Amino acid sequence: MQTKEKSYKVAGHIFSLKMDEGEKLWNVLDNYSPFECEVIPDPVFTLELVEKVETCDKKELYVSNPDVYEQRIDIYNIEDGYLFEMAPFGDVPVCGWMRVDPDFTHGKLMVEKDKRFCVNNALMLMYAFRTADLDTLEMHASVTVKDGKGFLFLGKSGTGKSTHSRLWLKNIPGTHLLNDDNPIVRVVDGQARVYGSPWSGKTPCYRNEDYPVGAFVRINRAPYDAIHRMSVPEAFASVYSSSSGLRAIKRIGNGLYSTLSTVIQLVPCYVLDCLPDDEAAIVCSKEVLGNA
């Protein structure tokens, strides 16, 4: 069967996906449609869905040890690059295997089941690792837009990032959601900008838009609503913990550190101790909009 290729542009970086022309998966990748662009000869990376990849002679680099409802992503060193093993939940067998070259420009993915999950995760991982030294951060955050700027809400899973975005949409007029899980932050011409992406967690929000970053806000659960600005070291640690990348690979780690160092000098960072209530959005927006 003939191979089909599509390209997508996310935060200015173009990558390609190759599968059989008749592959049914093409029909359920609607999250990529807003980002589709003309196929070019040299994308930043290419992922190809194949029948078989070799999975032997591997050495542990990162093992995720997920909870039952968390995704499994395990990474191994192999002779000619890296091997990724993935599954949608921590208590099910591995269903996807991806081999990539050392600089993450070419990947081959074998899938036994859950194809959409495996392709989405493979593309998201390759994007994060390939662009880490290109002034780019793939973030774990929820982003709302107000007055032409993007505000990123950070925090551990379950702390209320998505809830806080919804509170802004409810209480702050003129606000809309850009992305609810994996936005991209990139430094362009000395400015930090946030971009929508094809990856948005459980909330289907795939906007091909970008805005200057107005602020980073870390959400902490508390019995009251109060906000304060972080020091530079606190800001670095906060944004660092919410950015994707494999620090054990020197190129990736150095790229992340460099971009993070620039971003926190350009963007104010806050901690919001809050209840999941309307007042939290009002307190937060009053502070960050006034300083954005």
CATH architecture of the largest domain: Alpha-Beta Complex
Percentage beta strand: 25-35%
Please report the distance between the alpha carbons of the first and last residues.
53 Å
User: CATH topology of the largest domain, what is it called?
Assistant: Phosphoenolpyruvate Carboxykinase, domain 3
**Major sheet attributes:** 9 strands, mixed
Helix content: 10-25%
Strand tally is 18
Which structural class do the helices and strands define? alpha+beta
Q: Assembly type of the shown chains?
A: single chain
Structure description:
The protein has 292 residues and is α+β, with helices and mostly antiparallel strands. The chain has 2 domains: 3-130, no CATH class; 136-291, Phosphoenolpyruvate Carboxykinase, domain 3 (Alpha-Beta Complex). It has 5 helices and 18 strands. The strands form 2 sheets. It has a 9-stranded mixed β-sheet with strand order 3-1-2-4-9-8-7-6-5, with helices on one face. Strands 10, 11, 12, 13, 14, 15, 16, 17 and 18 form a 9-stranded mixed β-sheet that branches.
